[in-house]
Amino acid sequence: MRKWRRPAHTVRLRLTLLYGAMFLLSAVGLLAITNLVGLGGTRVSRSAPPEALPVEPATLAAATDRIAWLQAQLSDTHAAQARQLLIGSALALAVMAVLSLVLGRLIAGRVLRPLRMITAATRRISADNLHERLAAQGPADEVKDLADTIDELLERLENSFAAQRRFVANASHELRTPLATMRASLDVALAKPEPVPVQTAALADRLRTELDQVDRLLEGFLMLARTQHVALTDRTTLSLRHLATDALDARAADITAGNLTVHSAGVVDDSAWTQGNGTLLTRMIDNVIDNAITHNHEGGWIRLAATTDGTTAQLVVETGGRLLDQHQVDRLAQPFQRLGADRTHSGNGSGLGLSIVATIAAAHGGTLDLRARPEGGLRVAISLPAAAVPAEVAA
């Protein structure tokens, strides 16, 4: 059962009550003036001189009785008119109360319409489309000043994001040159004809391993910067089944070395297709498969399934292992987040694999869902907008 929530006190509600109260007070004042004028006019009519009334009786007593009777009739008429006026005023006040609320709501909505447009436009703008602007039209009032201020803020944010991405890309490119020089120097030192001491060879192997790790880290930085900055204009229709099977075939040696068992019965379904950048989608699937192989235990297993419901194409990769904490799993999509070295048999991860997967999926309008399996292990699900199966494939 859905829990009842108290309605929020919105600005429109407050403005509606304020405008409604103003309209209602105006109606009350108008009715009060009308009643005072009406009752005053009736009292004046009672004080009309007796000479204006026709006097038919001849005797003074009969005339006095006639005047008394007319005054009584006039008093009764005045009381009836006063009651009718009060009843009419009460009905008019009730109608005006409802009408005041309706008019107040309409006017409040009219006043807040530019703010609602600004709010809707601001919600559409994210880190991926900071180039968009509100560009509010209208007179130079407080609302337009607010929209212009938000546009200036978006421009500063766009420049900041662009500068950050340029810095990451440029730094990664520049750092690759000294890394290549260091690797070449190691190779030259080890290739000399003189015998190389065992400790020197071990140190060179250790340095080469660390250089490879830094190179993978820089490659991850470049991929993140490219994914966050590139416009996905070169879209092609790709099969999640083909991407997954290609990634498995390319890593057959690693799977054999880890004595891993792959269950890919669900990948035979070739109906899960999507559209996007082929290079980025391939890298995304490769990272997921690499994560499943690297972060596994000796003699473990990997289960893959590619499915679609017509609107969403999904690739699910599951691995076995120990029980994981869901709070820690939720942070794996962030850069440099790991579950610990005890879950990996190689320890060569850079902590950027799943963050790259999440970024590529988001750039294609998809999502990455990470779940700790109740039986132990990890479940990685990538959901992307589904595309129609190409005609040649369907044939």
UniProtKB/TrEMBL annotation:
Protein name, entry field: histidine kinase
Residue span(s) of domain Histidine kinase: 170-388
InterPro entries in UniProt: HAMP_dom, HATPase_C_sf, HATPase_dom, His_kinase_dom, HisK_dim/P_dom, HisK_dim/P_sf, Sig_transdc_His_kin-like_C, TCS_sensor_his_kinase
Signal peptide (residue range): none
Major site of localization recorded for this protein: membrane
PROSITE patterns in UniProt: HAMP (PS50885), HIS_KIN (PS50109)
Transmembrane spans: 12-33, 85-108
Cross-referenced CDD domains: HAMP, HATPase, HisKA
EC number: 2.7.13.3
